[in-house]
Amino acid sequence: MVLRTDKKLPRATADLVAREANVSRVAVSRAFNPNASLKQEKRELILQVARELNYTPDMAARALVTKRSHLVAMIVPDVCSPWESQEIDALTTALQAEGFATLLFKAKSDFSMDPMLLTYMRGFNPDSVIAFTENIEPDILTGFLDRAVPIYVIYDDAEPFGGMTTSSLFDRLFVQQKEGIEQAVALLKGYGVNRVAYLSGKQQSLANTERQRMITQVLAAHGLAAPVIVPGDFTYDTAYRATLDLFRVGNGADAVFASNDVGAFGVIDALRHDLQLSVPGDVKVIGFDDIPQSNWKSYNLTTVRIDLEDRVRALVRLILRRLKAPDSAPLVETLTTRLVVRGTVG
Amino acid sequence: MVLRTDKKLPRATADLVAREANVSRVAVSRAFNPNASLKQEKRELILQVARELNYTPDMAARALVTKRSHLVAMIVPDVCSPWESQEIDALTTALQAEGFATLLFKAKSDFSMDPMLLTYMRGFNPDSVIAFTENIEPDILTGFLDRAVPIYVIYDDAEPFGGMTTSSLFDRLFVQQKEGIEQAVALLKGYGVNRVAYLSGKQQSLANTERQRMITQVLAAHGLAAPVIVPGDFTYDTAYRATLDLFRVGNGADAVFASNDVGAFGVIDALRHDLQLSVPGDVKVIGFDDIPQSNWKSYNLTTVRIDLEDRVRALVRLILRRLKAPDSAPLVETLTTRLVVRGTVG
């Protein structure tokens, strides 16, 4: 049997570390905060002494004093797509470099939030929360937060504040979809496409609603008819079945614009493997996101790109700016989109 | 300008909630702990009163008293594959249902852990840590933990304790790869395959080392030659290029066994789109993991399945069992693998 090792030293205090390293108590605090400025060699000396003395700042005790938990909460849908998994991953890496850990809170399948979870979230006292209006409205969320100012990701080009009327303070990451969608529609028009279908995402998703609205608007501006709406839910399987229906029961389309890349893969596979149609010869397909799989040879998907690294950097900037200025007016960052041309249109 | 709302009530105390709900102080604590037994209607009443009075238990204050942080740390590689992203996702969902939040800590690209991160981990005082020996050895990790007993995921069939000599207490999730690999080799042999190549994963990954060892062993047991080792790193792009090398510079193979599904997709695409070879006609391909993409029509991959839901359930069981018995001897859960037969062998 293996027993617990008893070799551990008892935890030292910060005062002892300060004394042994011959620095101030404040310098010890700073050494453990990657955001605090401190000479590199001084930081290394303090961390070295701390290791030798077995000193670690206790985040729980520290949170009570500093009112900083070093936790960032992120509200995500109950089932994550590759895009969301990758965003969580990239955000965690970026936050870790700034001394924060990521806490995930998952919404229910109807996109609503369990109040018990929100109570938990409040209990963890996060320094920031990243949220979507379809999961929880700012007015409700801020009621569950003590001092964190939430960040909302808003897909919208027309309404500067997402059309929301609210008295709550929250920061905004705007994702402007228009530019990429305009490039996509121009490309389709250049290839003589007339009948466009839009494979939707989940109805509760505002990203989906805004994508559909913007595509319809841009098609009209180019003198093209409104798209046939094919109901999807961002998954491959639903996209596959919906495409069979569109071409076997419905009237088909010259091009399918999918609400995300994973849906576009389902469309392509249904066209090629079941309907024996050629992509892009018979039908053109465009996705949305530009996940790494879009570059895989079996799909080689033309898609509207949201740059994940840019998105994560913008979120981290919003978090750090807000922590430096807790009472400032709403902060805003803006992302644009662009078309990545590959092999499914042409 | 939007101003911060001032409508929030000050936080109430647990004592006030107990008085108003006419229950004991202990019942209030239990109501906020999904693991504590409490009649459903009593729990709902207390949560209702707590909402009305704006009471939330503060996790930081609570952690100091109860020594429970309700946080589970997970150590993952610096860049997550679809498999790991999905595991993080599923584990977070399962832990959330038990009242825990997941904290991610990412190892460096050489698989080592930043000591600063470990110091942070200790500061958050997690109730449990899920780790891999290639990222950090149990003896080092336990030195950074106060009371959490880590869980190690161990891919191994021969050595009952992964061959590690250690005096540290840790729990084990064993993944037995042998059964699924035996089924895969039998299938390949049945189709008359002679020359097998193994597309490796990252060299630092023990999952990779154990897969290679087990495949070599099983091939020998079936009277087949040791596999040609093709260096990979679990990514699509490297798998694609390595496959071109294997067939253009090297002597090719009758079958390629990839260390993960994503690598298998790269192999298939290189064979079909660049080398103009048919899968499974000219070359058979087998993957490892069974991620959802393996079922997509473009790949339709035969693969050795590790059941993600089973894996997550086993991890949650280990966490809960350990919290109930902090001093018990090492706890063990075991997962097996099985072959999922689809279209890339036959």
Strand-helix topology:
The structure is a homodimer.
Chain A: H1 14-21, H2 25-31, H3 40-53, H4 59-66, E1 71-76, H5 82-97, E2 101-106, H6 115-124, E3 128-131, H7 138-143, E4 151-155, E5 171-176, H8 178-190, E6 196-199, H9 206-221, E7 228-230, H10 236-248, E8 255-258, H11 261-274, E9 284-289, E10 302-305, H12 308-324, E11 332-336, E12 338-340
Parallel strand pairs in A: 1-2, 1-3, 3-4, 4-5, 5-11, 6-7, 6-8, 8-9, 9-10
Antiparallel strand pairs in A: 10-12
Helix pairs in contact in A: 1-2, 1-3, 2-3, 5-12, 8-9, 10-11
Your description of this structure?
2 copies of one chain form a homodimer. Chain A has helices at 14-21, 25-31, 40-53, 59-66, 82-97, 115-124, 138-143, 178-190, 206-221, 236-248, 261-274, 308-324; strands at 71-76, 101-106, 128-131, 151-155, 171-176, 196-199, 228-230, 255-258, 284-289, 302-305, 332-336, 338-340. Chain A is an alpha/beta fold and 346 residues long. The first copy, chain A, folds into 3 domains: 1-58, 434 Repressor (Amino-terminal Domain) (Orthogonal Bundle), CATH 1.10.260.40; 71-177 and 308-339, 3-Layer(aba) Sandwich (Rossmann fold), CATH 3.40.50; 180-305, Rossmann fold, CATH 3.40.50. The first copy, chain A, has a 6-stranded parallel β-sheet with strand order 2-1-3-4-5-11, sandwiched between helices. In chain A, helix 9 links the parallel strand 6 (196-199) and strand 7. In chain A, helix 1 packs across helix 2 (25-31), helix 8 (178-190) packs across helix 9 (206-221) and helix 10 crosses helix 11 (261-274). The N and C termini of chain A lie far apart (66 Å). The relative contact order of chain A is 0.11.
